[in-house]
Amino acid sequence: MYKKILIPTDGSDISKAAARAGVEFAQQLGAEVIGLFVAPEYQYPVFIEIIPPNFPSEEEYLASMRKLGDIHLQVIAEAAKAVGVQSSGITIFSDATAREIVHTAEQQVCDLIFIGSHGRSGWGQAILGSTTTKVLSTCKIPVLVYRLAKQPGDTGTVK
C-alpha cells in the first residue's frame, strides 16, 4: 500500500508523539520513513544600521538550525531503528513550512504524509494558522493526520 512515508516534525512533544506513531505505522506496512524538519530562513536585521555583535552570522544560524534539525530528526531515527524500519532525515530552510512539506513529499516520491496536529480548532486555528490544514488543502498525495487523545503532560485532572 504505502512504501515511503514522510513524517514532518517541529520538535514539539505532540510532534514527537506523532513521529513515533508514524514509525509504528510504517513498520506495520513495511514502509520506509523520511523525517523532515523545516527550519525558518535566516532573517537579516532590518532597521538596524549596525549589526549587534551578539547577532549570529548567517553561517552560524544555518549551522545551529542544522544541529537542531538533527536533534529533532533523531527521535524518528531512533524509533525507526528500534523497530527495524529504514529511515532518513532532511532539514530544509523555508518560511513556508506547509508548502515545503508538500514539495518534499513530492520530490522524495512519498506515498503518504503522516503529520501530527495540535488539535486547535475554531478561532485558535484561524488566527494562528495550521500547518496541517495548509498541507491538507494543497497536497495531492494522501495525508494521515495524527491527533493525541490527550496532550503530553495532561493528567486528565481539572486544575
UniProtKB/TrEMBL annotation:
Q: What name has this protein been given in UniProt?
A: Universal stress protein
- To which protein family does this belong? Belongs to the universal stress protein A family.
Q: What is the lineage of its organism?
A: Bacteria, Pseudomonadati, Pseudomonadota, Betaproteobacteria, Burkholderiales
CDD domains for this protein = USP-like
Q: Which SUPFAM superfamilies match?
A: Adenine nucleotide alpha hydrolases-like
Q: Name one Pfam family in it.
A: Usp
Tell me the ranges covered by the UspA domain, including all copies: 1-147
